[in-house]
Specification:
356 residues, alpha/beta, Rossmann fold, two-stranded parallel sheet, 10 helices, NAD(P)-bd_dom_sf, Oxidoreductase C162.03
Length: 356
């Protein structure tokens, strides 16, 4: 073998090793390829979407048991019946907006597999259009699906997790849960609400050994071709609403989200299969993070958002010590001088810390 051939072989081996090492950092204690791991029982809501399907396939391929839950208004019972032929998978339909529908899925899973270890919510719905253009029905439907759907799932499964002293939530949020996107105002609001819900719940359930991760993917491409047998919506679970005259200009900021999904259709930079692999590791790791950002777009956009917030705090921190007037006009000291914190705020200086 000549030098060039040896170099090519070494490079290929290195690339293969790099691909094989796609895993969470060691601080999470992720599962090892050659190590023993517990067989987990999953419930994947939104299991018929391109991200949900990839996650279901990843979990099944690694020996876990899965209930794949399709959405009632885009999936038929016949579509889900194919899962009934497998011992390791159960296919069900659910409308996450209805608490009873979610509860039936949980009960059927317990009847089939006797336990639930991981609940993943990949379901979601959004309308692309200016805030002014979206009507009440469209806005309420987004909140009912994205926020109330997540809350219904948690309330249906959390009692069981408390009883068994452990459980894992993998909630698919979005970069839209960390920054506002023009053309996705109400959708962003639902994701902000989901993020606040999960953070609060984690404090409440820490003593019950319940863990949760908010998965925030960037632009995710489909790794399976759309066919007549397995159709997927062109724009994912988004409805593109025609813009009104005020927002119809080609350069209108309100059309940013529409331009974004069209760009995504051409490039689709982040792999759904690789995302699913990392999310599967989240279920099996010992110390999951609160947030998992997937893709360079997610990292860069949220980093820019946090930098902007930090800079704004620095610009306005001189107003950090406002003092409310006390009853009877006693906000000033006896000698007629204003309170120290108030004078510091007016002068733009920081008040000295205690003990100096």
């Amino acid at each position: 073998m000549d030098v060039s051939s040896e170099h090519s072989a070494a490079q290929s081996a290195a690339e293969g090793a790099t691909k094989a090492k796609l895993q969470l950092p060691a601080s999470c204690d992720p599962p090892q390829a050659d190590g023993e791991r517990k067989q987990l029982v999953w419930v994947v809501f939104g299991g018929t979407g391109h991200m949900g399907r990839s996650l279901v396939k990843s979990a099944l391929s690694k020996g876990d048991l899965v209930t794949s839950v399709g959405r009632v208004f885009e999936t038929s019972p016949e579509d889900m019946a194919v899962h009934q032929e497998k011992d390791n998978c159960l296919g069900l339909l659910c409308d996450v907006r209805l608490r009873d529908s979610v509860a039936r899925v949980v009960n059927r899973t317990l009847e089939r597999f006797q336990r639930v270890d991981v609940v993943a919510n990949c379901s979601g719905y959004g309308v692309i259009g200016a805030c002014e253009d979206q009507d009440e029905h469209e806005i309420r439907n987004q909140f009912e699906t994205n926020f109330m759907g997540t809350l219904n799932i948690i309330q249906a499964t959390l009692p069981y997790f408390r009883q068994q002293n452990g459980g894992r939530y993998l909630i698919f949020s979005s970069t839209s849960g960390a920054l506002g996107v023009p053309g996705l105002g109400p959708y962003c609001a639902t994701k902000y609400a989901v993020e606040g819900l999960i953070e609060a719940m984690l404090y409440e359930t820490d003593s019950f050994n319940v863990k949760a991760t908010l998965v925030e993917p960037g632009f995710v491409r489909r790794d399976e071709p759309d066919t007549l047998a397995t159709p997927l919506p062109t724009w994912g679970h988004f409805l593109i609403k025609p813009a009104s005259e005020a927002y119809a200009q080609a350069t209108s900021p309100a059309l940013h989200a529409k331009r974004m999904v069209q760009w995504l259709g051409d490039r689709q930079p982040t792999s759904a299969v690789k995302c699913a692999e990392l999310v599967w590791q989240l279920a099996h790791c010992s110390y999951p993070p609160l947030r998992l950002l997937l893709g360079s777009y997610a990292i860069e956009s949220i980093r820019d958002r946090l930098r902007s917030v930090t800079e704004e705090l620095e610009d306005w921190k001189h107003l950090n010590f406002p003092v409310a007037p006390e009853a009877g006009g006693e906000s000033e000291a006896k000698d007629g001088k204003p309170d120290q914190d108030e004078s510091m705020a007016d002068s733009g200086q920081d008040a000295p810390s205690q003990g100096t």
